[in-house]
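Dear all,

This email documents one entry for the complex benchmark we are building for the journal club exercise. For each entry we list the sequence lines for every component of the assembly. Then comes the predicted three-dimensional structure of the complex as a token string, followed by one or two observations. Please use this as the template for your own entries, and keep the labels exactly as they appear.
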Amino acid sequence: MFRIRFHGRGGQGMKTAGNILGSAFFGEGFEVQDAPRYGAERRGAPLFSYVRASRTPIQERGVIDNPDLVVVADESLMMLPAAGVMQGVTADTVILINTRDAQGWQARARFPGVVLAVPAIAASPPGGTPPLQSAVCAGAAARLVGVIRRETLAQAVRLELDARGRLMLDQDLRWTLAAYDAMSAHAGCVRERVAERNGVTAAPDWIDVPQDSVRRAAPDIHATASSEQSLTGTWRSFRPVIDPGHCNRCSWICGTLCPDSAIRVDADRTPHIDYDHCKGCLVCVAVCPPHAIRAVAEGKAAACEKIAQ
Amino acid sequence: MSEFVIKSMKDLPSVHLLGAGTAMCAGCGGLQALHEVYDLLGHKTVVVNAAGCMTLLANYPYTPFRGSWLYTSMASAPAGAQGVRDALDILLEKKRLPPEENLTAVVLTGDGSAYGMGLSATSAAIERGLDFIYLCYDNEGYGNTGQQTSAATPHGARTATHAGVAGFGGEKKDLFAIWAAHRPAYVATVIGAEPLDLARKIQHAVSVKGPRLILSLAPCPTGWDYDPMDTVEIGRLAVKTGIWPLKEYRDGKVSHTRVPHPRLPVEDYLVKQGRFAHLFQPVRNDKLIAEIQARVDEYWRDVG
């Protein structure tokens, strides 16, 4: 049996990647389970999907906690314990990360096994739509397991993406197959292991949770606006920056229209952006009448701050 | 705020009462409307929240509210509001709560609950003359679970459950008319992108008693598939194309607070959203675009 976990953030298509890989396995005659797992569906929230594929009927159920292959679409998840990327990995697990620095992650995670980088597939034409993450990750994963043929993979992409009404199926297909081809040197590096049979799996370590009083089990929140302790500023990839010289101190259009209450206007009508909470939606950039708010890439903003200091 | 009349943008609150740091998506049109409403309603409220995206607002131990919040199942928020109202009334009557500490029961739900699962409980609450404000953020689908079709999904939109080339073949339910047919105290449509119109309606809503609906279209970058930055532009286009009429029902009459003139073609609104992309690509579906336009034209012809 192959056990594969795809980790990503909502919107990166890891559910779709799992579906593509699952269908590809199925096309090769495997028994397959593929399912996504997420809490509240929200763009940017960590989620994972998992695929089991076996030559015999699958009797395992639920989340995979002993993966043979872990695919990570967003390397920032490596730093997030709650994302559980490294959960249950052993030295035999292969980790495939969307990164430029696979060896760096191997060292940082002190991981003894194989760490590979998701192949960089260039947009064509250059500067065009960047490749679909789900297509690239599914294509690379399909090559690593070594039992999926190119044409079976192509068929799986058509099956899964056509159903989603993808308009540029040919392009998706090219990306998937390019990733598949790029991983040829590592074909079959993911080990197929014996499936566990029903009744053979170890019993889980149960934790007895005694019934608590209502006061404890359904506690009240007595603080007001405590949500401000959640620093949603980490969500940003671009930050809005106000140019005070151009701001015409209007009737706080940016502050009213900011969905997140993250722009405060002080007594002399100067708006201030709360970068601890601004999620980087850039609504303020779009609505500012004198165009006094610019969008600056987070990486650059940090560099600018350093220079300023 | 009852003595103070909001006339211009400058009269809108510049300091916000709804806390930042919620788990709503970046660019959420529902959160935009909610914070504009909450900035005016303030902490003397009990928000009764049915399951939906905004369940994530008060995520233990965090809450963006400065007042109370109660969580109910999807179908029973108005029933929860009834309990809250009754309890407050009993406390007031027994003089265990001074009148100045009285609170307003505010139901907060998405369209899944307001147009569908919770409609029966809502109808019964209006029938009983429950004194409450119902705020619905309508993002035209079950957004929290991946934008499946709801009773508020518009004709032709692609959803997770209607992903074919024609999109959803049914019709958006007219919740405004359903509420108005109950002859409640007040019904109004609003949108976060038009904060002044919204603020005036909230001001009127708090000045009257009884069942009151504030129905807000909530542009949804995640479910409607557009760049979060465009939330306001799409909201304004919904009004300018006549897709989302801004109107109110009071004293038995419906009046429009904004009549778009000239009314832009619906295409301007549709083309900006991925959920309508199948109308334009790979081949343009003139028939379906015309169908959507015809519905809007028919509406405004009846308005006169």
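Observations: The mean pLDDT of chain A is 88. Residues 167 and 219 of chain A are 49 Å apart (CA to CA).
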